[in-house]
Design goal:
The protein is built from eight helices and no strands. With 264 residues, it is an all-alpha fold.
């Protein structure tokens, strides 16, 4: 069983449990009104919102601050990566991608702080993130191609194999939220379990700092992988089909020929 965070217990005992009882909910002994992972997720979300409000008040074109430079570099790097992955202008998708990257990274790292746990070490949190990605990229695909046009992607490029490829593609897409959520959950849960055991049973806190740095690296990698796969899924949803891409190339060739004729 995952140990509860000290801060989560404190907030439940002095804030959430009294509010729940005042509203008429029955809170039994040994149980709390708000699960620990939800408390941590709320703290991460509130921290990100507070940071965004603080940074917004300090944005400047003439004299950008150090933190503005850092955020701009991170945003440009992520935007460049997504442009390579998606193969088109990624700016319409950056609000979700950057928010996911920031939230998952913060959720992974907060578990390194004594008294806290990572909300992403709980399967409920990682599943919610994966379902958001699943709904978003399918929505973008339907928005780009329409319902029937998007369903054609599942049938493959060869019509006589559609009966085989369509169910395979459906199962593959339905498995994506499971793989996304399990990968993130498994890695962060194992990381927290190892670091917590080292701190509690084997090494004192300061001696296990090198292991915590490794945990920080692993947290960054897991956030990167989650966001990278999100970009891959978006790319597959909004890409042109074979017929559409051939038609676009044909149109471009016609326009190019007309331009050459006009120049001649």
């Amino acid at each position: 069983m995952h140990e509860q965070s000290e801060l989560g217990l404190l907030l439940n005992e002095h804030v959430f449990d009294p509010i729940a009882r005042a509203l008429g909910f029955h809170v039994t002994e040994g149980h709390h009104a708000v699960p620990d992972q939800i408390v941590m997720a709320l703290l991460v979300a509130m921290g990100i919102i507070g940071f965004a409000i603080w940074l917004r008040g300090r944005l400047s074109v003439e004299k950008p601050g150090r933190m503005q430079h850092i955020v701009e570099v991170l945003l440009e790097a992520l935007q460049g990566l997504m442009k390579e992955v998606i193969g088109r202008d990624p700016r319409p998708y950056m609000p979700l991608i950057f928010s996911l990257a920031f939230y998952i990274f913060a959720g992974n790292v907060i578990g390194q702080v004594p008294g806290f746990i990572s909300p992403t070490s709980n399967l409920n949190i990682t599943v919610s993130c994966a379902i958001c990605v699943f709904m978003y990229y399918n929505y973008q695909g339907i928005r780009k191609h329409g319902v029937l046009g998007y369903l054609k992607h599942f049938a493959g490029p060869v019509w006589w194999l559609a009966w085989l490829l369509f169910p395979v593609e459906i199962v593959s897409h339905m498995a994506r939220p499971f793989s996304l959520s399990m990968r993130l959950f498994g890695n962060i849960f194992a990381e927290e379990l190892i670091i917590g055991s080292l701190n509690k049973y084997i090494f004192p806190f300061l001696v296990s700092l090198p292991v915590m740095f490794l945990g920080l690296f692993a947290s960054t990698i897991q956030a990167f992988i989650f966001v990278l796969l999100t970009g891959v899924y978006i790319s597959g949803a909004v890409e042109e089909s074979h017929d559409e891409s051939h038609s676009d190339e044909h149109k471009q060739a016609i326009v190019h020929g007309q331009q050459q004729e006009a120049a001649a």
